[in-house]
Here is the input.
Amino acid sequence: MSQNSIPDFFVYGEPARPLDVGFLHVETVLARGSIHLGQVAAHKHPQMGQITYWTSGSGTYRIEDRSWDFSAPAVSFVPSNVVHGFSIGPGTDAIVVSVADDALAALAAQSLLPLDRPVFTDSLPQHAAWQRLAAVLEMIAAEYAEAQAGNDKTLPALIAVALSHIARLAPATIAAPPSSDASLAFGLRRLVDAHFRDNWSVDRYVVSLATTPHLLDKASRAVLGAGVKRIVSERRLLEAKRLLLFTVRTVEDIAYEIGFDDPAYFSRFFRERVGEAPAAWRRRQLEAH
Here is the structure.
């Protein structure tokens, strides 16, 4: 657990840095085994998403405040800025495909998997999609390693296929066709990610998205499942949980970090939504992990 912040990485163990347009990177978990020794602390990637396909072994995978005990095969997709980490047993390995956000955006129309939310699955072990996913990931790894001419065209196509197989293994994630509501709601989500600390009013989100209060509320409820104010509150709560679980910052410091002027009001806010005080929640989560 870090002292004051959740680390941002380029790939694990390397500081975040600006990415080239269309950046992608493929390697195995064991390739960095000498760095992480099977214990990858909670971290996030500011500008890229990752597919992690576990080919052997077992362990525990964590996304935000959820965790799964898994045995291979298992797979996850984690978008940029989502906190994740894992602990694994000896000999456990995975293929990790890291893709810049701009490249993922270009793949969205070819993928069955929504690319704005994380997913982890090790279910449906007899599903044919596992064999197909394994074959596609092995092709991606080979194309990347061999660096043959034209792989700037073949690799994105293969990644879109891999993402679609992940969606088939987790059917609830399969994306609905895009709509104007979806575009507006995802624009709201991006703005909330950038400004949830700043106490923006609903009207400011409306103006920034060049829409009306009615249309924004309708889109938010239809796609995100709640009105604008609740979406902002949930984003602040998510950040509070991240900082409580993955840093040693005080409750007061976390309150100020996520935009509360009064730590006591933050504690009430947290208790109303989680059912216990921030410090008590932190203790329970750390004992569980």
